[in-house]
Write a structure and sequence with these properties.
37% helix, 4 helices, alpha/beta, 128 residues
Length: 128
């Protein structure tokens, strides 16, 4: 059992389990009834997406310094009580079932999902 961190909209892999979208907004132009069938996500979970303000920082990253600023801000948001409990729950669930989480960004190295992977690992999640 494990959690995988993926780019939403990519083809599903076998035994992937529930796909969770950790994005601020649903995919544009896609009817809600087709989110799962088009491999976006099964459940929308914006609780772990960067805030609108932080998301703007992430979209404007042009240097390592910008990335460090975004990372610090996102990690700070994920240290808030509700987000921290959500991460703890998902880390625990990774020991019991397969599921995937992700967002739309093409480059994971400059995306909150890379930080989400690290945050889950720090909480003992099984990462697949």
């Amino acid at each position: 059992m494990a959690v995988k961190i993926i780019r939403l909209g990519t083809p599903r892999s076998s035994n992937e389990g529930l796909r969770i979208g950790t994005v601020r907004r649903p995919p544009r132009g896609v009817p809600k009834t087709e989110f799962a069938s088009q491999d976006w996500y099964d459940v929308w979970y914006p609780n772990l997406a960067p805030s609108a303000e932080t998301m703007k920082l992430g979209q404007a990253v042009a240097s390592d310094k910008d990335w460090a600023t975004f990372s610090k801000k996102y990690r700070s948001e994920m240290n808030e009580a509700d987000a921290s409990r959500n991460l703890d729950l998902l880390a625990a669930l990774s020991h019991q079932s397969n599921f995937t989480m992700g967002c739309y960004c093409e480059n994971e190295a400059r995306c909150h999902r890379s930080l989400l992977r690290d945050l889950l690992k720090e909480r003992g999640a099984l990462i697949g």
